[in-house]
Design goal:
about 600 residues; alpha+beta; Butyryl-CoA Dehydrogenase, subunit A, domain 3; Butyryl-CoA Dehydrogenase, subunit A, domain 2; 3 domains; 5-stranded mixed β-barrel; two-stranded antiparallel sheet; 19 helices; 11 strands; globular; Acyl-CoA_dehydrogenase-like
């Protein structure tokens, strides 16, 4: 048979050149010099050297491991061929390798290295996690929960415990030995769940002896279920069947020590999620789980609140790094792809689109570093009363603000690739799917907005702290010789005055009827807090040594070409507005016969 019958297919001579990834630490326009400004010279040298090396490891090794986690999703085998219950969770080798890597690289341990200055270790850890996340195959989730567990142990004074079981757990959570290190789960969400953790908890604890209990319940959404240990909440029931009103915190081993047998746990099913598919998330039945109470009885919510700042910071790391990662790829792709006779970066509209994304990414990066810096100050005991109030206010703002931006940001950047951004085998679509979890995990935008309002009500000094912080950031720029910077300062000061007036003119009330005024405007105020603070940070960044023309233009574009306040008109927050919202949504459904014939979507 003629050889020509087996010739290679002729598909034309053109192929699309893929975008290139680079050292993500060196490729960031503000990371290195901001760290240089915030850290002492010896700490900067140590931190910068490690981040540079780690970024190269991400390019050479970690990125491909993360991609394989996306391609090889976890599986749950509930029964074997003979009907025996096995609850075998199968994850790919690359997933386990990445977990070993984040232990070896000290992504947890760095944040708790008591031999270092607290600010330095917190900034080092924050940036390293941010660099890791886009390539990590979602192992950043167990990383965040493990960090939260360590934070909880320390808040409860357990870092110095002599209890063998708890001491081993604490040491293994912090271990940099990839073979010895443990990860932790956080099992808080139940069927009625969401952010109302206390009201929705239907897990019960029966006392055995001492601090030992048996847990029974159903955890509806439990991520990284391959963890070694977990922290969970439950309601203690006494011998007479009386339930505690308040929840307690419990520590448990996922598997019975020294065995592969689950500790009274059945894995019911893995969640079929929009994104984060690399991450094994399951529904768990707790049936006589052996556990130990941590902290005081009925103080479980207070105990886990200690980890909130940490997990919110890690969430912001994920949002900011997702913005930066796909933005860098879109920028590089624009220098390689041609359309209508020009490279994409030579078309003004395409260039403008990516530049606007850069403005937001840069602002959010500075916001992330600022909050990490202040958290470090707080951990060191050097923060003032105002700085402590500021960090309590701005940590939920950071999480909510960056999470709200990341989804449209990634969507816009994906569009910059045209059809290739829609092709699964390009590896780009998963960025958008995974980004959607950010505004949901650790509290939705509305939940965090209400938390911000609660802080303003219970800690009125937080409003003063915010006003002082923004003023301190922009005041040195008033003497700038660059008119763009002076005009930007004026814009921020005007917005600050109006925002602070709005914050002080309302009183937070938690009940629905009385709280309509402030609750309706909570999101508007929270997002304005983020925009004004980011504007101040961009101005401050532009006046430091090493600043360049790009920094001036970025500050000007953010502060002068965008609305820093949004809609803060008091009439938009009142009871009348709330009634109008209800009218818009439900007026056409009132007393309509067809409303009685609805079908649950589970039946469609």
């Amino acid at each position: 048979m003629p050889a020509s019958n087996y010739a290679h297919a002729k598909t034309g001579g053109f192929t699309i050149e893929a975008p290139h990834a680079y050292n993500s630490y060196r490729d960031d326009p503000v990371l290195d010099r901001t760290l240089k400004r915030l850290l002492k010279p010896d700490e900067y040298e140590r931190t910068s050297k490690d981040l540079d090396r780690f970024s190269q490891r991400i390019l050479d090794e970690i990125g491909e491991l993360g991609r394989q986690c996306e391609l090889k999703k976890p599986e749950l085998v509930v029964q074997d061929a003979w009907g025996k219950r096995v609850d075998e969770l199968r994850v790919c080798d690359e997933w386990n390798t990445l977990k070993r890597i984040f232990a070896e690289e000290g992504l947890i341990a760095i944040g708790y290295d008591k031999s270092r200055d607290a600010v330095a270790r917190r900034l080092h850890q924050t940036v390293k996690i941010a660099l890791f996340n886009p390539a990590a195959g979602l192992t950043g989730c167990p990383l965040a929960m493990t960090d939260g567990a360590v934070r909880t142990f320390e808040a409860l004074g357990l870092e110095k415990t002599e209890d063998p079981e708890l001491k081993e757990a604490y040491e293994r959570l912090l271990s940099t030995d990839g073979q010895r290190a443990w990860t932790s789960g956080q099992w808080m969400t139940e069927k009625r769940g969401g952010s109302d953790v206390s009201g929705a908890c239907d897990t019960y604890a029966t006392h055995v002896e001492g601090d030992k209990y048996l847990l029974n319940g159903y955890k509806w959404f439990s991520s990284a279920v391959d963890a070694n240990i977990a922290l969970t909440l439950a309601r203690i029931v006494d011998e007479n069947g009386k339930e505690d009103e308040k929840l307690s915190l419990f520590f448990l081993h996922v598997r019975k020590p020294g065995t592969n047998e689950l500790n009274g746990i059945q894995m019911i099913r893995l969640k079929d999620k929009l994104g984060t598919r690399q991450l094994p998330t399951a529904e768990l039945l707790l049936d006589g789980v052996k556990a130990r109470m941590l902290g005081e009885r009925g103080r479980g919510i207070a105990a886990i609140s200690n980890m909130l700042n940490g997990t919110r910071l890690v969430n912001a790391c994920g949002s900011v790094s997702a913005m930066r990662s796909i933005l860098n790829l879109a920028r590089d792709y624009s220098t390689r792809r041609e359309a209508f006779g020009r490279r994409l970066d030579q078309w003004p509209l395409h260039l403008r689109t990516i530049a606007e994304l850069e403005v937001d990414a840069r602002a959010c990066t500075l916001f992330l570093l600022d909050v990490a810096f202040h958290l470090g100050l707080q951990e060191s005991g050097r923060s003032s009363e105002y700085q402590t109030a500021l960090i309590r206010l701005m940590t939920p703002v950071l999480k909510a603000y960056t999470a709200k931006l990341v989804v449209p940001h990634v969507s816009e950047a994906l569009e910059c690739f045209g059809g290739m951004g829609y092709m699964e085998d390009s590896g780009i679509p998963s960025s958008l799917r995974d980004a959607q979890v950010m505004p949901i995990w650790e509290g939705t935008t509305n939940v965090l907005s209400m938390d911000v309002m609660r802080v303003m009500s219970t800690r009125p000094e937080a409003v003063d702290a915010f006003e002082n912080a923004v003023t301190d950031l922009v005041e040195p720029a008033r003497v700038s010789t660059d008119a763009r910077i002076r005009d930007s300062v004026d814009a921020v000061k005007i917005a600050l005055e109006a925002l602070v007036a709005s914050m002080r003119s309302f009183s937070y009330v938690s009940d629905v009827e009385g709280g309509i005024t402030f609750a309706g405007g909570a999101r508007s105020i929270m997002m304005a807090l983020g925009r004004v603070y980011c504007g101040a940070l961009l101005i401050n960044n532009a006046i430091h040594p090493g600043a360049n023309e790009s920094d001036f233009v970025t500050a000007k574009r953010f502060c002068l070409e965008r609305s820093l306040l949004g809609n803060l008109d008091e009439t938009a927050f009142g009871k009348e507005r709330n009634e109008q919202d209800r009218l818009i949504l439900f007026n056409h459904t009132q007393n309509q016969g067809w409303m009685k014939r609805g079908v649950p979507i589970s039946k469609l």
